[in-house]
Amino acid sequence: MTRTYLILAALLVAAPAALPAQRGEPPRVELFEALVRCRAIGDDAARLRCFDTAAAALEAAAARREVVVVDRQQVREGRRRLFGLAIPRLPIFGGDEDEDEDRIETVEGVVASASQDGMGHWIVALQDGAVWTQTDNRPLALRPRNGQQVVINRGAMGSFMMRINNQPGVRARRIR
Q1: Is residue 53 part of a domain?
Q2: What residues make up the domain containing 164?
Q3: What is the pLDDT of residue 68?
Q4: Is the pLDDT of residue 20 over 90?
Q5: How many domains does the chain contain in total?
Q6: How would you class 3 by CB atoms within 10 Å of its CB: exposed for 0-12, middle for 13-18, buried for 19 or more?
Q7: What is the pLDDT of residues 102-141, one digit of tens each?
Q8: Among 4, 30, 94, 168, which has the minimal tally of Cβ within 10 Å of its Cβ?
Q9: Distance CA 98, CA 81 (A)
Q10: Higher-pLDDT residue of 6, 113
């Protein structure tokens, strides 16, 4: 396997992990490991049988949507879409994002709409569906308008800086 592709098997069933084992089925990660173990078999016919059996089991699990295989680009896109949301660390996105070379530091977008709340903080909806709200009291010189560019950078200690139309940045957090 090359480093450019990251194969992740994600359990998408709502049942606990122990449930498949109770029904006599192997856990889903085992399906992939069984396929890899086939490589160690010396006899050609036995190795082929092993590959055929393991591949059929993996294919059946994928058809039932119990196992999903994604490449590294899909993981990056998922991280980009979730940028700024307070979600638990999920192993389906490649493990510890803080130590990852693919960590997203900046996202760019386009203003779809902007309004102010009762405290004068800007609430900015982007065309990709993300909604960010200003958390500091810095005024923006110019009102955000539809179609303007937005750049959001990861800051220190979980904070984010949002720059709208090349104005100085304001602190922000993602609310949707």
Answers
A1: no
A2: 106-174
A3: 81
A4: no
A5: 1
A6: exposed
A7: 778 999 999 999 999 999 999 999 999 999 999 999 999 9
A8: 4
A9: 17
A10: 113
Q: Strand, helix or coil at 61?
A: helix
The b-or-e profile of 32-66 (16+ CB within 10 A means b, else e) is: bebbeebeeeeeeeeeeebeeebeebbeebeeeeb
Count the Cβ atoms, other than its own, within 10 Å of residue 124.
Answer: 23
Q: Is residue 64 part of a domain?
A: no
Q: Could you tell me the pTM of the whole model? A: 0.60
Q: If you ran DSSP here, which 8-state letter would residue 118 be given?
A: T
pLDDT in tens, 28-57: 678 889 989 999 999 999 999 999 999 999
Cα dihedral 61, 65, 69, 75 in deg (nearest 10):
-160
* Residues 150 and 109: beta-carbon distance below 8 Å: yes
Six-digit token pair at 139? 């005024």
- Name, in order, each residue with C-beta under 8 angstroms of 75's C-beta and a sequence gap of 6 or more: 6, 8, 93, 94, 102
N-term to C-term CA, the chain: 36
Q: Which residues contact 45 (CB under 8 A, 6 or more apart)?
A: none
Structure tokens at 82: 């979730």
Query: Do the domain assignments include residue 131?
Result: yes
With beta carbons less than 8 A apart as the criterion, state whether 4 and 70 touch.
no
